[in-house]
Every structure is written in structure tokens, then in C-alpha cells.
UniProtKB/TrEMBL annotation:
Lineage: superkingdom: Bacteria
Pfam families for the chain: BPD_transp_1 (PF00528), BPD_transp_1_N (PF19300)
Name recorded for this polypeptide: ABC transporter permease
Topology of the protein relative to the lipid bilayer: Multi-pass membrane protein
Gene3D superfamilies: MetI-like
UniProt xrefs under SUPFAM superfamilies: MetI-like
Domain (ABC transmembrane type-1) ranges: 114-345
InterPro entries the record matches: BPD_transp_1_N, MetI-like, MetI-like_sf
Annotated keywords: Cell membrane, Membrane, Transmembrane, Transmembrane helix, Transport
Subcellular location: Cell membrane
Length: 353
């Protein structure tokens, strides 16, 4: 009897291990295909864009033999499949070429500018989550009431209003007229070179250094653009929170909890929201990824020295190495954040396991 029980337990462990191995293999295969697709799209966009990278290097008055030599050095005379193979090899070595605009390797520029984008997107997502989740819960609980209509209007404006228009309006009102916040940029010129970069994020570096004057100045600069991105994030998060909560509040376990006499506060915040938090994790992660890749207009309006502004300036100057390198990095970050949210989903929801 004992041997039979051991055999059954051993068989179950073997099946569980096999299932885990297959699931992990499918996940890694899907991730590899996604990254390969991202590399392919990035490469072929660079070849389709009507910008000649050779002319960007030698100028439009260069002799024909100079043009031909540089074209050969850049590998553009090779077959397309060969160029793609070289491109993949360079990417895996973190070699995106040199930027025409800065004369530095693109990977160095990405390391320099990406922390500014990450700082802005992180604070924007934090604000959007901090206010978006409670507003979405309130709208679901008071469905059809005044607060529900207010939250839906706030979300509609956040979705509809162009973000660059809100940015210009915010600068006009809060910077130019009221003087509540600092202007464009990350720091005033006075504080520009007082801080030694550690993480590349000014708020973190100034706090680590204990330089609270720089910290206050950085907060004054980041307050308006982060609030703008936070509002954009809030519109999405509050809408999805409302939808998830309405679904949870209609479930039978909520009715059972009310019959048992549990307080409405406990039912809403400790039962319904707890279950709604599982898909909400994915929503917040995707919102964060969208802010990382979609803050180009905000960075342009506020002269924020982030990766989005770097890509925009590079595109305007036909610096395709920088454009493709920055675009690829943002795509990889989006894939990484999406993968991380999927792992969290599996961790917090036993049904997915």
C-alpha cells in the first residue's frame, strides 16, 4: 500500500515537473519570438524610412567616390538578409553604432537619457495609481451617482485632450501666471552641475547626497510634467478599476459577505478590491510601459532631457542610429514590463497556475 502511494506521489511530481517545464518552454519561446519580431520591425523601419544615412554622415555635397566608400563601410551595399544578421549580432553586443548628433556611441546616450524618462514615467504612474484606483472604486460603488459621472468625465478629458495642449496650458497657468512651479528642464542652471550623477535620476541622487536645495528645485521642475502624465495614467487606471470593481461587486461572494453582516467598507476594500487587484496589476504595468514609450510630446514641451526627446531630435537630424537604438530600447523595456506583469499575474492569481 505504501509503495503504491509513493508511486502515485512520484507520478504526480513528474507530471507537475513536466507541466512546469513545458509552460516555461512556451513562455521563453514566445518571448524569443517577440524580441525577434521587435528586432525585425525596427530594422526594416530603418530601411523603409526615406532618409539616407550615408548623406547624413558625408553631407549632400560629398563626391561620389566618398559616398560609395562610406556606404560600403556602413554595410549598406550588402544583401538585406546579411545586413539584418549583422544588425542582430550588433544588438546582442549592445552596439547600436555612433550617434551623428552627439558623436558618442548610442548605448552611452541611452544610458545617459533614459533615467530622466524613467524618473518622469515612474512618478506619473505613481500619481495615476494613487488617485486613479480610489476614484475607480468610488465610481463603481456609486454607480450612476454624481461621483461616478465626475470620474467618467475626468477620464474622458484625460483620454481626449491632446497631452501637448495640456502641457502648454499648464506652463501658461502654473508657471507663467501663478509661479507655483519651475519652468522647463530638470533643474535651474544654478543647480545644473552641483549634483554628481549616481542613478541618473535627479530626485534620487539629490536625496542620496542629502542636497535638499537641489531636491526641492528638482521637485519644482518635475511636478507639472509628472502631474500631466499622472493625469493621463489616472484616466486609464480609474476607468479599468471601475470596470473590474463592477464585475467583482456583482459576484455571489459579495452577496454572501453582506448576508453575513460584514461592513460595506470591509467588503469593498478587503474583498472586492483584493480580487480586482489581480488584473489591475497588469493595467498599471501597461500604463507604466506606455508612459515610458509615449512621453515624447511631454518631454518636448517641457524640454525634459529624456529618451523621447533624444529620439525626436535625432529623427529631425536624420540620425538613424540613434533613432533605431532608442526605439529598440523602448520596445525592449515594454516587453520586459509586460513580461514582469504577466509573472506577477501568475504569482497573485492561483488559477493561472
Amino acid at each position: 500500500m505504501t509503495d503504491a502511494t509513493n508511486d502515485i506521489a512520484s507520478g504526480e511530481r513528474s507530471r507537475a515537473l513536466l507541466s512546469f517545464t513545458l509552460a516555461t518552454g512556451r513562455f521563453l519561446l514566445m518571448l524569443a519570438v517577440t524580441i525577434f519580431g521587435l528586432l525585425a520591425v525596427t530594422f526594416f523601419i530603418g530601411r523603409i524610412v526615406p532618409v539616407d544615412p550615408v548623406l547624413a554622415v558625408v553631407g549632400d555635397r560629398a563626391p561620389a567616390h566618398v559616398y560609395a566608400r562610406v556606404r560600403e563601410e556602413m554595410g549598406l551595399d550588402l544583401p538585406l538578409w546579411h545586413q539584418f544578421a549583422i544588425y542582430i549580432g550588433n544588438v546582442f553586443r549592445a552596439d547600436f553604432g555612433n550617434s551623428i548628433l552627439t558623436s558618442r556611441p548610442v548605448v552611452e546616450d541611452v544610458i545617459r537619457y533614459f533615467p530622466a524618462t524613467m524618473e518622469l514615467a515612474t512618478l506619473g504612474t505613481f500619481l495615476g495609481t494613487l488617485f486613479g484606483v480610489p476614484l475607480g472604486v468610488a465610481a463603481a460603488v456609486k454607480r450612476g451617482k454624481f461621483i461616478d459621472h465626475v470620474v467618467r468625465v475626468i477620464g474622458l478629458v484625460g483620454y481626449s485632450a491632446p497631452i501637448f495642449w495640456l502641457g502648454l496650458l499648464g506652463l501658461l497657468v502654473f508657471y507663467s501666471k501663478l509661479g507655483w512651479v519651475a519652468g522647463p528642464g530638470r533643474l535651474d542652471v544654478t543647480y545644473e552641475y552641483m549634483l554628481t550623477p549616481v542613478t541618473g535620476m535627479v530626485l534620487v541622487d539629490s536625496a542620496l547626497a542629502g542636497d535638499w536645495a537641489v531636491f526641492r528645485n528638482a521637485v519644482s521642475h518635475i511636478a507639472l510634467p509628472s502631474a500631466l502624465l499622472g493625469y493621463y495614467s489616472l484616466a486609464y487606471i480609474s476607468r479599468m478599476t471601475r470596470s473590474f470593481m463592477l464585475n467583482e461587486l456583482s459576484q455571489e461572494y459579495i452577496t454572501t459577505a453582506r448576508v453575513k453582516g460584514l461592513s460595506e467598507t470591509r467588503i469593498i476594500w478587503f474583498h472586492a478590491l483584493r480580487n480586482a487587484a489581480v488584473p489591475l496589476i497588469t493595467v498599471i504595468a501597461l500604463s507604466y510601459a506606455h508612459l515610458l514609450e509615449g512621453s515624447v510630446l511631454t518631454e518636448t514641451v517641457f524640454a525634459w532631457p529624456g529618451l523621447g526627446r533624444y529620439i525626436t531630435n535625432s529623427l529631425q537630424n536624420a540620425d538613424m542610429n540613434a533613432v533605431l537604438g532608442g526605439t529598440l530600447v523602448i520596445g525592449l523595456v515594454f516587453v520586459a514590463v509586460n513580461t514582469f506583469s504577466d509573472l506577477l499575474y501568475r504569482l497573485f492569481d492561483p488559477r493561472t497556475r
